[in-house]
Design a protein that fits this description.
The chain is 42% helix and 8% strand. With 309 residues, the protein is of the alpha/beta class. The chain is globular, with a radius of gyration of 25 Å. The chain binds nickel (II) ion (NI). The site of nickel (II) ion has 5 residues, from loops.
């Protein structure tokens, strides 16, 4: 939310000249009046309509039971990015038997994970969040710590709307060229930024440019517990080929268990998402977060048996 002192008419312009402050006062007063009259209207509309003689027709048994307020309940502390999919209450617990790196996951069912890298971006990410919310789709955002520090409110919204957050380093350097201490530093600074902004711990990482040596992937898994998440569908959206090309590349590349790469940093990519998401939904794909996809991992024999049954 914006700082109230930043809103026009509340503070700074009043000192500039009298006319300005009068105008602002009128604007404020009118806004206040509208808010006040709206609340008065909504109250007065409800009250007189209720007792229109209907009360006598309602059997006493159907009246709501009065209960005492629950004073003991407290909202539990957030421990990790808990994906909240109302329609898909699927496990996201993948810690048993997680591999070191993935570009796709063998699953039974038409599940895919949409991933968006390099945000949060102050305009494009909220626009994308609107599109995802309208379709009840949960995605995974591989965020840059430095951008999280700049736009923490955007990250908080993504978390609040049930999306998963993944580590994409603090400054987006090519990790395969860095020493171990710099790799640790890049990952832990991003983790700290995300914890500070939204109170969640990330569970997977994606290396910038996909560049991470096998030895480094094992180090990251051992020290941070992050599987390295690459992708199986790359629309090359960062080259800005136009929204329709991005949409058709993703739709033609998607397979069950796919991890789809895109970048919410680019407005063209976000422009491509309504057609992309609707196209995949029409093909019968269901969207899960990366952790959920990893938790569904099955073996070839089981997948084969379930496909044939
Ligand atoms: Ni990136």
């Amino acid at each position: 939310m914006a700082d109230p002192s930043q809103q026009p008419g509340i503070t700074d312009s009043a000192s500039q000249d009298g006319r300005d402050s009068t105008l602002n006062l009128q604007r404020m007063t009118r806004r206040g009046f509208i808010a006040l009259s709206a609340s008065v209207t909504s109250c007065s509309m409800v009250a007189p309509k209720k007792p229109q003689g209907n009360a006598a027709n309602v059997p006493p048994s159907s009246a709501p039971v009065r209960t005492a307020a629950n004073q003991d309940y407290r909202t539990p502390a957030v421990k990790g990015p808990v994906p909240r999919n109302p329609d898909l209450s699927l496990s996201s617990e993948f810690s048993k038997g997680a591999g070191v790196s993935y570009s796709r996951v063998l699953v039974s069912g038409n599940f895919v994970a949409m991933t968006f890298d390099d945000g949060p971006h102050p305009q494009n990410t909220p626009r994308l969040l609107d599109m995802l919310r309208a379709r009840n789709i949960k995605a995974t955002f591989y965020v840059i710590g430095r951008s999280v520090d700049l736009y923490p409110q955007v990250l908080r919204r993504a978390v609040a709307e049930g999306h998963e957050i993944g580590n994409h380093t603090h400054t987006h350097r090519l990790l395969s060229k860095l020493g171990d201490s710099e790799v640790r530093n890049e990952l832990s600074r991003c983790a700290a930024a995300v914890e500070k902004a939204a109170g969640v711990r990330m569970r997977t990482m994606r290396p910038p440019y996909g560049g991470l040596l096998q030895r480094q992937r094992e180090l990251v898994m051992n020290e941070f517990g992050y599987p390295t998440i690459l992708w199986s569908v790359d629309p090359l959206d960062w080259k800005r080929p136009g929204p329709s090309v991005v949409a058709s590349r993703i739709q033609s590349g998607a397979t069950p268990g796919a991890i789809i790469l895109a970048h919410d940093l680019h407005s063209q990519t976000v422009d491509a998402m309504p057609a992309t998401l609707d196209g995949l939904l029409r093909k019968g794909y269901k969207f899960v977060t990366v952790s959920q996809l990893l938790a569904m991992k099955t073996d070839p024999a089981t997948a084969q048996a379930q496909a044939e049954s």
